[in-house]
Design a protein that fits this description.
By secondary structure, this protein is mainly alpha-helical. Helix content is about 50%, strand content about 0%. Helix 3 crosses helix 5. A GTPase-activating protein (GAP) that modifies Der/EngA GTPase function. May play a role in ribosome biogenesis.
């Protein structure tokens, strides 16, 4: 038996092909496929949101966070505790007491922090040690 070449013709049992013109109208009638998820470009739509909010009045922007106030300044007790636990300040104070030379930056840091320490002590009503006052004079 000889081999028969396969053909591209559909034959009597296959579905008839639709013409190209008809296929184009079928795709257009279906419309755009509905995608999954949100529309792209959410970050870049801020200009649209701003325009809409101007036209609509006093609507809140949903992207704003909490309106709860946060204290940005430390209390004097916290600041005093922080100064007492400052290791850099402690090392510089030890070097200063031992009559070692300090650079200009280190000296200004020591002066600034020690002055702030004295202000906090006076503000809180604590008393400095007598020994500490004698060393200063």
């Amino acid at each position: 038996m000889t081999r028969q070449k396969k053909t591209r013709k559909a034959g009597p049992l296959a579905q008839p092909k639709t013409p190209r013109d008809a296929r184009a109208t079928d795709a257009a009638s279906k419309g755009k496929k509905k995608g999954k998820g949100q529309a792209p470009g959410q970050r870049h739509s801020s200009a649209k949101v701003l325009q809409q909010s101007k036209t609509k009045g006093d609507e809140k922007d949903p992207r704003h966070g909490s309106r709860r106030k946060i204290a940005l300044v430390m209390t004097p007790e916290q600041e005093l505790k922080q100064l007492q636990e400052d290791t850099k300040l402690q090392l510089l104070a030890e070097r200063f007491e031992n009559d070692e030379s300090l650079t200009a930056e280190e000296q200004s840091y020591l002066d600034e922090k020690s002055e702030r320490y004295e202000q906090l002590i006076a503000k809180l009503g604590y008393e400095l040690d007598e020994e500490w006052d004698d060393e200063e004079n």
